[in-house]
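Minutes, project check-in
Item: structure for the 107-residue chain
Input as provided by the requester:
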Amino acid sequence: KKNKDWVCDICEEDFHYKYNVNYIEAHHKVPLATYASTYNVTTSDLALLCPNCHRAVHIYMKAQGLEYQMIKKILTGAGDLDKNKTEQNIKATNTNCRVAAKSINRA
């Protein structure tokens, strides 16, 4: 990988520079479940993200049902967003995740 490959597509944090560790997470811009079973994923289907941005993208996807490019605009301050609706949806999503985790731990 080239040095630029360790830079987050959203926050532009250089993980290697900041932590001296070669680490980045690959996010599928379009969820794999939406493809036909024979689709071959290419590098253009992926976004390289730091762990925080990757988690935030998944939270927005689950809470808002938004696509990657719109989430990227929101997280970088370039997109419109109803913050009240988003906060409510994220709180509901987090609550559902906590409830699910508790039920798993009890099993």
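Outcome recorded: Strands lie at 25-28, 46-49.
No further action items on this chain.
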